[in-house]
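Obj: model holo form, ligand = (2S)-amino(hydroxy)ethanoic acid.
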Amino acid sequence: MDLGPVIMQWLDELAECSEDPAELTRRYLTPEHAQAAELVMRRMREAGMGARLDAVGNVVGHFPGRRPGARRLILGSHLDTVRNAGKYDGALGVMLPVACLRWLHERGRRFDCPIDVIAFGDEEGVRFQATLIGSQAVAGDLDLTMLSAVDDDGVRLEEAMREFGLDPDAVGEASYRPDEVAAYVEVHIEQGPVLEAENRPVGVVTSIAGAVRLRVEVMGRAGHAGTVPMNLRRDALAAASEAVIAVERICLDTPGTVGTVGMLRTVSGAVNVIPGVVEFTIDVRGESDGRRRVALDRIDEAFAEIAGRRGVLFDCVPVHETGARRCSPRLMRRLGEAVEAEGIEVRRLPSGAGHDAMAMARLTDIGMLFVRCKEGISHHPAESMTAADAEVAARVLLRFLERFDPDEREMDDR
Ligand code: HGY
Ligand code: MN
Ligand code: MN
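Output (holo structure tokens):
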């Protein structure tokens, strides 16, 4: 079938759409996002699909079905990346389905139900801090206060939309009605080591960990590094440093949770000034919403203790929270049948990483197929996968499409 090499070549092409020639970075509503969207739409049209940008900058491709009025299957993933990213996170889940549909189109194949492929414009949330903007809009779940979010250059989301040629007042047009959608299925690299460790090319996802992102501001008192005695200081960076260690210790001690401080900066810092204000981010995930809540409560307590002892203030602002999501049993079963039809043992596994499927779960039943990646590395230029595994995943998806019934609904065994 040789879809693997085609998919890998398309992903190499897509990786050229980067804000930095030295490292892959493609943030939401940048010229590089537009460049990537054009490339995706060109590939979609080769597959006999209609292709357009929706009201929030997602690329939406439409593969017509034979049966008018049948609920559609939505496939897809995200087109944006983290900074200094790998080529496969998100992009695989866009290009692999398009390559499969082109293969079917070249053979004159159609299914009862129409199939949409969506390349979501913002899943990582690198530019505006919040995440899942594209898929939340499609699910009709976008918090409109997000439009006033500001990027590092002071550009508001609604301004960036206008510059991209979008109308912020029209974001509601991106949403689908629940009754027109049969399911959402996302193909994604595992971003973890399990499939490689067990020598498996693909796995079926059971659940997606919930996540919360906080922006924290620590306010102490700036002062002269040479004149303020140590016992009179209210050093915001020393306090923040204790807080960072507290996040690590608490999530180590709270089973089923992970905690990360990914960004930290002193505001107007200088070598000879006691830091007065420090800002940092926290990302806490939990296998269940309850576990995540336990970790967050412990973090709150730890910060209160540090603040009292050091005479500083902590201001913690949640910028994003998504509950843990369970994948649809029927879609797990159908994906598993497609994997078995390829002669591969079915391995079910949870996802610690977040995905657009979390937002799409508000619209329809969700399923995910994981693909092995080298040493589980992701969010890093060393992220890699093989053409052979892309080929296996494409074959599995084609088998899934062959058997997909748009009228099947979740039974009571959810
Ligand atoms: O943060 C995540 O888990 C995803 O890669 N956006
Ligand atoms: Mn990612
Ligand atoms: Mn991703």
